[in-house]
């Protein structure tokens, strides 16, 4: 029992949380690529990605008998997410915090997708047949992970630039012509 739920129920909830984090993360990532602010999906992505990493520590045998690679990924993801949340909500993306947020959020999303690929090769029979070792190390697994990495690395992010102040110009006919000859020179 985990938090009053059977292991199967808890694992299903963990998977749903993870998939929600990945889907909203991809939406947010494509929003970033288009320089679109997406406060709702961003909050969902960050919250569900934190829940994914945190809930992963509760699944046996992931309880701390000895540190596993999954623990390292979870810890790294939580550190990156803490920085991303601080950059986004604490520093409001000011200055360098904008690219710090983008980098930490995207690496967190990548780590989540990385684990999804590993779990897919372990749990989906057709994929497991292509890479039967645990953890998967065969060429098909390496190719899929390489494709995922390339898709994340070769994205270009164009941050929303701060708009420059606009000088209001008056209408050209608003200027009066001044004839200095008509001016009085009295002091």
Kindly describe this structure.
The protein is mostly helical and 187 residues long. Helices cover 61% and strands 0% of the residues. It is globular, with a radius of gyration of 26 Å.
Work out the count of structural domains: 1
Tell me the Rg in angstroms.
26 Å
Q: Helix- and strand-based class? A: mainly alpha
Shape assignment: globular
How would a textbook summarize the main sheet? none
Helical residues, percent: 55-70%
**Unreliable stretches:** none
Order of helices and strands: HHHHHH
Number of strands: 0
Question: What is the beta-strand fraction?
Answer: under 5%
N-end to C-end Cα span: 98 Å
Mean pLDDT: 84
Number of H- or I-type helical stretches: 6
The multimeric state of the shown protein is single chain
Features:
6 helices; 187 residues; single chain; 61% helix; 0% strand; mainly alpha
Topology:
Blueprint: H1 7-33, H2 39-56, H3 69-90, H4 97-123, H5 125-130, H6 139-153
Helix pairs in contact: 1-2, 1-4, 2-3, 2-4, 3-4, 4-6
In short:
This protein is an all-alpha fold.
């Amino acid at each position: 029992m985990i938090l009053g739920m059977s292991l199967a129920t808890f694992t299903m909830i963990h998977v749903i949380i993870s998939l929600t984090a990945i889907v909203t993360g991809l939406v947010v990532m494509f929003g970033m690529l288009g320089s679109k602010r997406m406060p709702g999906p961003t909050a969902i992505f960050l919250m569900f990605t934190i829940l994914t990493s945190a809930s992963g520590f509760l699944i046996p045998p992931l309880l701390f008998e000895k540190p596993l690679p999954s623990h390292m990924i979870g810890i790294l993801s939580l550190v990156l997410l803490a920085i991303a949340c601080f950059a986004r909500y604490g520093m409001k993306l000011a200055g360098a915090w904008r690219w710090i947020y983008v980098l930490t959020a995207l690496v967190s999303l990548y780590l989540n997708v990385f684990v999804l690929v590993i779990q897919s090769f372990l749990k989906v029979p057709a994929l497991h047949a292509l890479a039967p070792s645990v953890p998967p190390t065969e060429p098909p697994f390496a190719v899929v992970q390489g494709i995922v990495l390339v898709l994340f690395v070769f994205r270009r992010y164009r941050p929303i630039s701060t708009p420059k102040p606009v000088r209001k110009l008056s209408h050209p006919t608003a200027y009066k012509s001044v004839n200095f000859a008509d001016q009085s020179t009295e002091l």
